[in-house]
Amino acid sequence: MAKAKTAKASYRCSECGWQTSKWVGRCGECQAWGTVTDAGSATPTRVVSAGPVSSPAKPIGQVDVRSAQSKPTGLDELDRVLGGGLVPGSVVLLAGEPGIGKSTLLLEVAALASQSPVPRQRADDASGHTPALAADRTPVPAAGRTPAPAAGRTPVLAAGRTPVLYVTGEESAEQVRLRADRVGAVTDDLYLAAETELSAVLGHVDAVEPKLMVVDSIQTIGTSEVDGAPGGVTQIREVTANLIRVAKERGVTVVLVGHVTKEGAIAGPRLLEHLVDVVLYFEGDRHSRLRMIRAVKNRYGPTDELGCFDLSELGIVGLPDPSGLFLTRREEPVPGTCVTVTLEGRRPLVAEVQALVAKSQLPSPRRATSGLDTSRVAMVLAVLAQRCKISMHEQDVYVSTVGGVRLTETSVDLALALAVAGSTAEQALSGSLIGLGEVGLAGEVRVVPGVQRRLAEAARLGFKHAIVPRGSLELGDGSPLKKADPQLTSHEGMKVMEVDDLQQALRVAFTAP
Prior knowledge:
Helix 7 (about 375-385) packs across helix 8 (about 415-425). Helices cover about 25% and strands about 25% of the residues. It has a nine-stranded mixed beta sheet, with helices on both faces. The chain is of the alpha/beta class.
């Protein structure tokens, strides 16, 4: 007689949710020690029969998309990253380090959204499309004051209510109100609730019926329906699932604030990023006013856009043209500086690299970097010493960027090499020169993507000369520019010089007018 199969014991990691049939001391997924605990017997697979459907399936061409059109937030830089704005019924996760400005940003978004009138369809719109909300960045008025319509503009939107619910689990309501007074985010239709229990949050949703809800943060909200403390894997999974259900059923846009670990990853199970529709990262140096937001997942728009903001005591303001923050304006050029153009997503940013080479008083000379990759800087210094015979074994080398921006692209290599060489020789480069290119170990200068876009941005800011790798311009052999001079071409008023290796780049750079 065959024995009935007994259910095997199941063990689960309390940090990431990884499961195994036997106990182990270290999680096989997140490599954490002592987090694998008994999760009870494994539940056998059940056969589920067909049941009633919520709505019949229909051809995709007959699906009405008017209710899913994105609504601008009022912050153009955030709309750029989101792909136009917030989509009703979507769930957005915004993560960032403590003190970076996540709560300030979302408080301004909530205040602007509470002032947005409810869309009303035009009477003469035969297509049935609902007009989009205006995306102009308008200041938030004080409480009880209604902004006047712009002169010469006929409003086509009804002046209905747009209630917004801001749930804070980390601060008291009074603390959030103080920040709202400081940044001017006090409006009549912005509702504030300080809660840490999921059932209470859902009760506020029933009472307020918001169009937008901000939860700050998801790690502080818990429910008594499941075991574990708030912020644990089980709690985050249950809370997120319930908020997603509310968003999809009621068409409420939900924005969740997420904590990050010391490695920079979002705290909690990886499943959290899979469940939400959009994942945004808010970045920046806490000692700098510049803040950047980028999307790593976006079901409604691109993931290669970058939004730039200026953080001050009065709030967060979008920076449509942030390149000026990363440059130093001076009358005379200084040795050890070179300008380059980096691509953040699809946005070109002009940045300045500075280098200082000084006589060392230590047996082992110092190598200090700020805003650049340390290993990349060491490689460029080695190439300069070996291929260009620029010896720095007795000199301290300090390299930095201007404005606190961090440059990780390999296209910065050439500008870094030119800055270090200029500081070593005490010779300044032309103030109208930029350098683009990746430097290889053999001393060659390699092509980088997006050269045309980078050159166009540099030309817009007034730069006249550029040094780029050979083949970057992709000109045909029959081009009159190519016939006139194989090394010198023109790009929107710029003289673009193509080089093959670092030695040639140094010769061209220090002889350019």
